[in-house]
From TrEMBL:
Keyword match Transferase: yes
Protein name per UniProt: Acetyltransferase (GNAT) family protein
Pfam families: Acetyltransf_1
Keyword line: Transferase
SUPFAM superfamilies: Acyl-CoA N-acyltransferases (Nat) (SSF55729)
The N-acetyltransferase domain, residue ranges: 10-191
UniProt-listed PROSITE patterns: GNAT (PS51186)
Recorded superkingdom: Bacteria
A single GO molecular function term of this UniProt record: acyltransferase activity, transferring groups other than amino-acyl groups
Organism of origin: Bradyrhizobium lablabi
Length: 195
């Protein structure tokens, strides 16, 4: 039976040490995307070939107490993840010329997603974005930034781990820069969101 995303309301919560086993189950033995364990925007290409070390690095970040992202659950099963953190924690964004800062606003960033295969195209990403907006607002971030793929641009990548322009536009994000044809920087002003 195919699930209809219009009827599934996922429970979305910050990743805490208690929920670490759920994230491990979601990411599986391959660490979500080629053993990355959401380290790419933190350390760049150095993440390659160090799956176990990446896992332990993320685990230490989680243990420090400030949740580095959100988990979506269907019942007790973790079905989706988004990394959500102050942009300052993702130093590699400034190493990529098309994602360098557009100003000095201390934004938070949604830098990547991972959705369990059986739950793709069911609204998990959209619900994670909505929850991320609320979480960043509660943390008093002035704005939330994202770096999605414009899937309608010629020669755009099919690797959409950073999300899609359409999903962010639907959530109210606006393009604030585009230095590469298919890779805009999108931002949501959080002052516009009610508590």
């Amino acid at each position: 039976m195919t699930k209809n995303f219009r009827t599934i309301k996922f429970r979305i919560v910050p990743l805490t040490p208690k929920l670490w086993p759920a994230l491990e189950d979601l990411f599986g033995k391959w660490g979500a995307s080629n053993g990355c364990w959401c380290m790419y925007w933190r350390i760049g290409g150095a993440y390659r070939g160090r799956c176990g070390e990446n896992r332990e690095t993320l685990r230490k970040i989680v243990k420090r107490g400030s949740p580095p992202g959100l988990l979506a659950f269907d019942g007790d099963l973790a079905v989706g993840w988004c990394q959500l953190t102050p942009r300052d924690a993702l130093v590699w964004l400034d190493r990529m010329w098309w994602f360098q800062r557009v100003d000095d606003v201390p934004v938070w960033s949604i830098s990547c997603f991972f959705v369990r295969r059986a739950y793709r195209r069911q609204g998990v990403m959209s619900q994670l974005i909505a929850a991320a907006l609320k979480t960043a607002k509660r943390a008093k971030a002035p704005a939330l930034e994202a770096y999605p793929v414009n899937t309608t641009a010629p020669k755009s990548t099919s690797n959409i781990f950073t999300g899609t322009v359409s999903a962010f536009a639907h959530a109210g994000f606006k393009e604030v820069a585009r230095r590469a044809a298919a890779r805009p920087i999108m931002r949501h002003d959080l002052k516009a969101i009610a508590r």
